[in-house]
Design a protein that fits this description.
Length: 166
């Protein structure tokens, strides 16, 4: 009787551990896959922008239809490393949910001042104030996910090796 209980407990524990490792393994594989899916486009976007100094020629802001505020900066910047060095004129636009946010940003990026901006090297008229998102968090997500998947595969291999050995 005691051996049956011990066998039942050991089999239950074995299947419980196998089920938990499988759930962790699949979740970590999904985490790694999502990480690589987000890493590649974020890296391409991050590498396609170059920093520069933009001079704000003019700015306008107005109220949107749905209680938001829209600010447009007219900027110019000089591109040195292009095939033909040139001045580029473009606009940067942002939408804010409150007038206070819009006014705070307008006070930082005021008329007739210079600020760091980032332009797309493929389409030089695409410009923005903020640097694009870094791909590093997605790289870490990818490494952690696939590392845990590798550990899962090693544990499953060890389980099956010792299970078949007995």
């Amino acid at each position: 009787m005691a051996s049956r209980i011990l066998t039942f407990v050991s089999c239950t524990l074995y299947f419980f551990l196998l089920l938990n490792f499988t759930i962790i393994g699949f979740a970590s594989f999904i985490l790694g896959s999502v990480g690589i899916g987000l890493f590649i486009p974020t890296l391409l976007n991050y590498e396609s922008y170059q920093n520069n100094t933009c001079f704000i020629v003019d700015l306008e802001y107005d109220r949107c239809q749905d209680s938001c505020y829209y600010v447009i900066w007219s900027v110019e910047y000089y591109i040195l490393n292009s095939p033909s060095s040139q001045y580029t004129f473009s606009t940067i636009s942002q939408t804010f949910s409150t007038l206070n946010e819009a006014e705070k940003t307008v006070s930082v990026y005021s008329d007739r001042s210079n600020h760091t901006c980032y332009y797309d090297i493929k389409q030089i008229v695409r410009v923005q104030w903020n640097q694009p998102s870094s791909p590093e968090p997605y790289l870490i997500m990818m490494i952690v996910g696939f590392s845990l998947t590798g550990i899962y595969l090693i544990f499953i291999g060890i389980f099956y090796f010792y299970r078949n050995k007995n």
